[in-house]
Amino acid sequence: MATLPSFIKKASILSLGLLSPLVIAANYDVVILNGRVIDPETNFDSVANVGIKDNKITAITTDVITGEKTIDATGKVVAPGFIDVHAHGQNIGDYRMQAMQGVTTMLELESGVLPISDWYAGQAEKGLPLNYGAAAGWTYARIATFSDTLPQATATYFQQAQSRNDWKMDIATPEQESKIIKLIEQGLDEGGLGIGINAGYAPGHGQKEYYALAELAAERDVATYTHVRYASNTEPQSSFEAVKELVGNAAITGAHMHLCHINSTSLKDIDSILPMVNKAQDNGINVTVGAYPWGAASTVVGAAMFSGNGWRERMGSTAENFQLGVDRMTEEQLAEYQANKPGTFIVWHFLDEQNPDDLALLDASILNPNVLIESDEMFWMHMDEEGHIDNYAGDEWPLPQELFSHPRSNGTFAKVLRVYVRERGLLTMSEALRKMTLMPAQLIEDFVPQMKNKGRIQTNMDADIVVFDPDTIADVGTYQDPNHPAVGVHWLLVNGEIVVNNTELDTAVKAGEPIRRDIAK
């Protein structure tokens, strides 16, 4: 990479709101020198210096600047920190693994959670390194309503409910639907970032209930984030039908409806589903889409999609497609876990990335310009001698060697940069960064004003910044050996604080701030 140039186009400089020479001469908290600065919104892409003061980017310049802390970014890319809008693992180790691949903001939007206030209070007590936030979770409202319990803002509440079928498969009575909606409204009043609709985990819900959620989102001017009702290549109850349902509700109500992980819920029907979504977008329907670059998903083994007559045919799966820990399951194991441990998280393989036809299906999702990158990150877990799997909530770093998760949990963004930018050349660096920074920020910034200051390298923006080596950034974890942090991120700043310092995570830095809508008075 070239050293600092003496001349950069004046228009590019002005587009980033550079400070005057007098201000630039000021001393900064942190300066990042000689890096390739890329801003996806303005298309600025040049070697420059970045000055940070009071947690904000306050200068982007070719002038000499100094600061209390200096980062030499020669040969590195300086980009907005990656924003993950689809992250389930909410323990401190989960956040740390994400930090090592350049994530600065982790949001639990698809599943969501309830109660929202309890969740934010709990996360604040953990001293997290990254920004955090969550949507109001519809499945939590359903579980609470059908079980006549109060929702609990933990993943365990969702996992333990997998032994019940009523909330998954029964149509709510008018009274139940009213209670579900009221619980969601309470979550929005408490600052939830929209409505998480894990429809695929409760596919028996009624059309009116799903429509009511879309109406509520439109009324409150927030988005929904949907794991669609069905995942199947055969009709009826196909992936195509489920996505069409989402598009229809968005069109009728005017709600912004986000379609989560189109790569997995489409299975092998992406060539039919993606054009339908693109046509909806072209017609002004407010549907957005996310995907992750893996041919395997991760979910609870007792999920409704893995039940009922003919589910293997619908899903194109046998026990061999299921992975428990780091090993594939047998039919006997699958039956035992579904009957007795249905809340256990497993990995489910649905595409073979070594098969050119399957890889082309995955590529279609990742390369589409309207699809943002989201990880669907999962908890890091451990298994005892009896086969019980628990989410790891400890503070040890590096993570204990025996822990496991889906490799998307620590490698999604690094994999996009390694595979799609460096190795295969299918995305430009700027386009990949747009999908991982600006697009996720824009997804929610209309109703979450904090996000207007993220996903950009511009003056007055939050200093959420990743500095990485474009020649070495890579995912390291695999399905069989997942517990390895990504490599290639040299520095990570969250709200101006250095979380990753010269490739090493600083566990003492607790820079994360809540991302939250205003709380109703």
UniProtKB/TrEMBL annotation:
Keyword Thylakoid: no
Record flagged with keyword Signal: yes
Residue span, Amidohydrolase domain: 69-341
Keywords: Signal
Domain of life: Bacteria
MF-aspect GO terms: hydrolase activity, acting on carbon-nitrogen (but not peptide) bonds, in linear amides
One Pfam entry name: Amidohydro_3
Signal peptide residue numbers: 1-25
NCBIfam families: PRK09061.1
Name of the featured protein: D-glutamate deacylase
Organism: Vibrio genomosp. F10 str. ZF-129
